[in-house]
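lol forgot to send this yesterday, sorry. struct tokens for the thing we talked abt
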């Protein structure tokens, strides 16, 4: 109760702040930063501030600088642009600053240069938002260079004692310095910044294909009227240059300037990056107001707009205490986890590629050995891990194994015809007293055994062990491990002229003498005398437990033989209990294949996801869930159906009644696109 009250109070506290979506709240901090593609010079550069070499002329200028706060603020009075080049030793920066009255008063290195009119360079080579560099100069060429361990917003410290070793700078003035009576044109800056100078925790060297974060600022401090101006290449959204997440992207290309026009390659998924920083700013605000951090994803009240751009199977995780937090967004398709903490430290982590196993349910047919070999090779090539064969043929199993596939024996469990003559008393009886022995429900092949009859569990266990012992069999796969359907999938009602809005007595099993006596001994009640048997939880559990005991006996025997055991089960444990007395969430098999045939239930692909999610949550890591998909049901929504299965935690899928060769190749392309590794 205390936990519930705490949660409700927390939601009440945080909800007002989240009335707007995060993207709306922090729009100014989430605009897409500017980008620059940087090429090699086509000749030697003389660092003289003039930018008159051929390489500089060919290099594209940045977009003109804008107010630091971004859109909606006045256009700067004077235009400022920058250019960049690189080689094996230096990053070259050139800038042109229009100015009618060029001024510079300060003359001593490492004084606060922005108290003059200045030009500033900010560089974060590894893009983590920490351990970045700042180099400032005025029109005299006086340098202020420093390094910061983290931004000021996170309690950062600046290290003025750091001097950029090997730095070359020069200034050129088109006009006269510190003479206000004449009218000047501009001053230009040229810098050669050695790569090796930027060494603090440096793991992203300047080389072709890499991307750095960079920004430029022009501070107009020496004004006759009003506060200073802050003009920047890419705006931060507020008067604060120390927001490395807002800096531009600098992409290095191994080509000479003027020979190519390349597009920036972002170093990470921009949708994930944007959302991660939106959540960071939300955490900052919440802490300033509540002195606490949001501790669960739900507390951010993320909208569809914020989530829809994420990769299909992206996962958000929030870990927080009162004073610290970490937010991670995992992108399995890329094999990368994006992480940010309370200090604004951003990093990416490689994660292992997601491993999946995929299956087919197949009936044996009369293919030649050559045809089988070709078929199995195709399955293996297209991402199928194994086959559930209904029946046994040693040669076919051998060919399957030789192709690198698993071979499992798929066999019905409770639905058994072979005992009709030998054990007629073993068959389940409905509430009308009719036995599956001579009056099966729905169809003639529905010959279900009673799970409580002495000898049934032992017979089935021995039978499955016998199948598991056969050559080339990797495991056994249970099917029809249940009672007859007390409720059919709605699409089948018309086939039998019924409406199963309630449990009808002719489809409600098992009321045999054995079950009645066992239940009476346990509860003192005869199930035939129950007024509402469909509502009596003891009677419901009695039959669920009976099936479970049979499964336990089979499982114990098969696992003692060191073979795998799995089952085709009804979709979602809740549906399975209601429809067929199958409590498979309590079993101890290695894997479950819920038969999520969505069109049987007049459902779309999204229902696959809901069913998989319930199944995965139920087994809670104790077993694998492989989504059983009817190929015909998903053919028109193939990728969407697969996404629903995998995105909700399925360890793979299993196809029934397909797919054909065309769709097998589509399946392979899908697995490759998602970056899955097939085991």
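and heres what i got for the seq, position by position
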């Amino acid at each position: 109760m205390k936990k519930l009250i705490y949660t409700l109070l927390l939601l009440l506290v945080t909800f007002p702040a989240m009335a707007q979506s995060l993207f709306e709240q922090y729009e100014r901090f989430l605009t897409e930063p500017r980008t620059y593609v940087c090429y090699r010079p086509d000749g030697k550069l003389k660092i003289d501030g003039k930018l008159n070499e051929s390489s500089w002329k060919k290099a594209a200028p940045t977009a003109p600088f804008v107010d630091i706060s971004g859109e909606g603020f006045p256009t700067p009075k004077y235009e400022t642009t920058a250019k960049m080049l690189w080689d094996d030793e230096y990053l070259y920066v050139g800038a042109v600053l229009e100015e009618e009255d060029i001024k510079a008063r300060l003359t001593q290195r490492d004084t606060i240069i922005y108290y003059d009119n200045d030009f500033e360079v900010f560089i974060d080579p590894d893009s983590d938002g920490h351990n970045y560099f700042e180099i400032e100069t005025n029109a005299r060429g006086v340098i202020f260079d420093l390094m910061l361990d983290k931004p000021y917003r996170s309690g950062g410290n600046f290290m003025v004692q750091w001097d950029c070793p090997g730095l070359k700078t020069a200034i050129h003035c088109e006009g006269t310095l510190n003479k206000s009576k004449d009218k000047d044109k501009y001053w230009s800056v040229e810098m050669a910044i050695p790569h090796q100078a930027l060494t603090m925790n440096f793991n992203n060297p300047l080389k072709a294909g890499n991307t750095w974060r960079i920004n430029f600022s022009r501070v107009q401090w020496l004004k006759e009227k009003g506060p200073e101006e802050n003009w920047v290449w890419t705006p931060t959204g507020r008067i604060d240059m120390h927001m490395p997440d807002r800096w531009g992207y600098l992409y290095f290309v191994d080509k000479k300037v003027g020979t190519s026009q390349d597009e920036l390659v972002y170093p990470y998924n921009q949708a994930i990056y944007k959302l991660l920083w939106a959540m960071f700013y939300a955490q900052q605000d919440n802490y300033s107001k509540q002195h606490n951090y949001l501790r669960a994803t739900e507390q951010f009240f993320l909208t569809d707009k914020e989530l829809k751009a994420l990769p299909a199977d992206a996962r958000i995780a929030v870990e927080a205490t009162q004073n610290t937090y970490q937010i991670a967004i995992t992108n399995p398709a890329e094999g990368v986890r994006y992480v940010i903490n309370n200090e604004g430290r951003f990093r990416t982590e490689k994660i292992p590629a997601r491993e999946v196993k995929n299956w087919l349910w197949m009936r044996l047919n009369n293919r030649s050995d050559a045809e089988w070999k070709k078929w199995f090779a195709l399955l293996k090539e297209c991402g199928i891990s194994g086959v559930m064969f209904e029946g046994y043929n040693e040669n076919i199993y051998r060919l399957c194994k030789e192709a690198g596939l698993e071979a499992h024996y798929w066999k019905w469990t409770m639905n058994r015809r072979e005992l009709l003559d030998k054990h007629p008393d073993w068959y389940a009886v409905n509430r009308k007293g009719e036995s599956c022995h001579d009056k099966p429900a729905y169809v003639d092949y529905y010959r279900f055994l009673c799970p409580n009859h002495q000898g049934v569990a032992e017979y089935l266990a021995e039978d499955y062990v016998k199948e598991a012992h056969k050559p080339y069999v990797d495991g056994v796969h249970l099917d029809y491990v249940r009672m007859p359907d007390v409720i059919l999938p709605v699409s089948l009602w018309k086939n039998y002229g019924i409406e199963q809005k309630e449990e009808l007595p002719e489809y409600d099993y098992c009321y045999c003498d054995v079950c009645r006596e066992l239940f009476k001994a346990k509860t003192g009640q005869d199930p035939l005398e129950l007024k509402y048997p469909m509502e009596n939880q003891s009677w419901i559990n009695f039959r669920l437990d009976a099936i479970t005991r049979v499964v336990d006996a089979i499982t114990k025997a098969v696992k003692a033989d060191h073979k795998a055991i799995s089952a085709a089960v009804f979709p979602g444990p809740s549906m399975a209990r209601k429809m067929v007395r199958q409590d498979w969430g309590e079993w101890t098999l290695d894997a479950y294949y819920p038969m999520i045939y969505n069109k049987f239930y007049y459902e779309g692909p999204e229902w696959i996801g809901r069913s998989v999610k319930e199944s995965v949550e139920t087994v809670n890591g104790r077993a694998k869930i492989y989504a059983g998909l009817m190929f015909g049901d998903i053919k028109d929504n193939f990728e969407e159906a697969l996404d629903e299965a995998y995105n909700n935690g399925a360890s793979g899928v299993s196809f029934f009644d397909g797919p054909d060769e065309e769709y097998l190749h589509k399946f392979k392309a899908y697995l490759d696109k998602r970056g899955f590794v097939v085991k």
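Residues 537-560 form the longest helix (24 residues). anyway ping me if u want another try
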